[in-house]
Amino acid sequence: MRKLLFATLVVVFVLLIFFLPPGSLAALQHYQAQFSDWHQQHPLQTALAFFLIYVLVTTLSIPGATLLTLLAGSQFGLFQGTVLVALAATCGATLAMLISRYLLRAWVRLSFATPMAAINSGVEREGLYYLFALRLTPIFPFFLINLLMGLTSVKTLGYFAVSLVGMLPAIVVYLNAGRQLSQLRSLSDILSPGMMLMFALLGFLPLFSRWIVRLLRKS
């Protein structure tokens, strides 16, 4: 059963590579008008298709989630786009974590022994606060967090909830940038060094708060 499921995921991955639009900002801007026409003619179907594609992209760690988020900002607006992208990204992250936990456990442990030790240590010390900090800081690869967290003791529901809240700030930033999609020249226009520093500080905030609580309890 596990081999069949894994084979199915590989087939889906290959199909997505062939049928998804080219993964560049220029290609996204090129197809923006066509997607807008689909959305105006079939709003519910387009939103559902977008949601499912986003879940598959994030589950299988296919490059392109950032471009899809920009597209959501240009087509669905900030509120609806936030709901769609946040739920889809969290569902995809949770599915990727479960795949790592139940299908790829041995491979992940063998391939990422060094970062796995650091993740285990952080989860043992800080619990879900550590996951929250990782989600708030976009300098850590999305796919790697999903893979490594699958081998920890973090519960699925807790993983889903913390990931949902932790990814919201970055999602809103990209959605807001997507509202001016046609004016963007590169993805570096979105995250300036100052904004990256802000996200890094946000990432340390839950761990710092946890440390303060521990000091208060000891005193």
Automatic annotation (TrEMBL):
<feature type="transmembrane region" description="Helical">
    <location>
        <begin position="83"/>
        <end position="108"/>
    </location>
</feature>
<dbReference type="InterPro" id="IPR015414">
    <property type="entry name" value="TMEM64"/>
</dbReference>
<dbReference type="InterPro" id="IPR032816">
    <property type="entry name" value="VTT_dom"/>
</dbReference>
<protein>
    <recommendedName>
        <fullName>TVP38/TMEM64 family membrane protein</fullName>
    </recommendedName>
</protein>
<comment type="similarity">
    <text>Belongs to the TVP38/TMEM64 family.</text>
</comment>
<keyword id="KW-1003">Cell membrane</keyword>
<keyword id="KW-0472">Membrane</keyword>
<feature type="transmembrane region" description="Helical">
    <location>
        <begin position="50"/>
        <end position="71"/>
    </location>
</feature>
<dbReference type="Pfam" id="PF09335">
    <property type="entry name" value="VTT_dom"/>
</dbReference>
<feature type="transmembrane region" description="Helical">
    <location>
        <begin position="156"/>
        <end position="175"/>
    </location>
</feature>
<keyword id="KW-0812">Transmembrane</keyword>
<feature type="domain" description="VTT">
    <location>
        <begin position="62"/>
        <end position="179"/>
    </location>
</feature>
<feature type="transmembrane region" description="Helical">
    <location>
        <begin position="195"/>
        <end position="213"/>
    </location>
</feature>
<feature type="transmembrane region" description="Helical">
    <location>
        <begin position="128"/>
        <end position="149"/>
    </location>
</feature>
<keyword id="KW-1133">Transmembrane helix</keyword>
